[in-house]
Amino acid sequence: MENYTFTGQTANSLEGTYTFPLGQMISKNIFNILSPAFNKAILVKSKPYPQGIDVIVIPKVEKFQFGYDSAGAFKGKALAKISIKLAVYDMKGMLVWEGIISSPKMEKIYSMSANDFWEATGSVAAESVVAVLQEAAKVITSSREIHTFVSTKGVSETIALKPPGKELPIVKSDVDELPAIKAKPNKNAYAIVIGIEQYRQKLPKADYAVADAKTMTEYLTNVMGYPEENVVTLTNEHAAKSDFEKYFEKWLPNNVEKDGSVFIYYSGHGTPNVKTGDAYLVPYDGDPSFIEQTGYPLKKLYESLNKLQAKEIIVALDSCFSGAGGKSVIAKGARPLVMNIEQDIKLSKNMIVMSASSGDQISSTYEEKGHGLFTYFFLKGIKEGKYELGTLYNYLKPQVERIARKTYNNEQTPGLIAPKGLLNLRLYDR
Predict the structure, then answer these.
(1) For residue 161, is it within any domain?
(2) For the chain, which terminus, N or C, has the lower number of CB atoms within 10 Å?
């Protein structure tokens, strides 16, 4: 499948022959988008299949349509739509379920330059692949045939559909054992730690987000010198939009003083506003279909933090905002975006933002460690004594990239927005 390419002509204008590496696009995204439908998933490229799995899911491109249209003066529109055939087999080769799933028609505006034209052509094809895989995940999860297979088989704990509300196993990793490091107490250090794993709107779970938040709080209070009374931890139903407003816009300004330090940590879903391109945090009661009314904009968070008189502010986001899966959700019928969280952000000179991923990437869960991939290496770096911000980032970035590529066949590059003078900032004093 990975080597499959589509070569064909447009459905309408700009005649010519075009080639799309659809197999690579599907291979890049299928694991992270479909794996949440199962207790455990393994990406395999050929036989023999690993032992202990229950079903094999095989994708095949059924139909791909692309073309171009006018989008006004000196602008064009690239169009793409893809249909895939998914077949689910048991280990005896018997067909459990199969179906043809189609993406909505995707569009991408481009200017009349060659570079913009080719970028839009590739981008709209990739977006159609992501969209059809997201539809496939919904279909698989709700399939009566697959649920019947699972119930009659007795459900192995390897690869089977997740029953609604089933809790993930509790995983203890090396970072859950606190290091012997003990920082100097800092009475002027304040933190808000948020972890949202389950959502009121029954959104896909943000796996291990609560564990991320709880462990981060333990590091702040027991390792990094933050007083317990200065750390607010919000999880699940205690992290509604009103809680975001209360603590970001009232509690912090009322408490943080001129020489204070502020640490903000968020593990949970992000989403794009498809109309404006703005990135939003999704509170417990957030709804991606009404994100302007129910979400918390990143811009608003940064505006609130910019007003603080703090000496230094650190923001760590284990989330993603493209809508392409992982720790990102999107309104039904909308399409993923290539997000740039640096765009239009005006940060004060004392603020640093570290993010789990970049652009259209997915923020992965490190299942065997029971944490978000970014959070795990953030904590591991602190545990190993990397308490300067630049040193910590230079440690975790290649580690996250390596595990994402090796384990999940996924590109994930953590981001860092920081004034040069703050790269030597110490997360705590020893």
Answers:
(1) no
(2) C
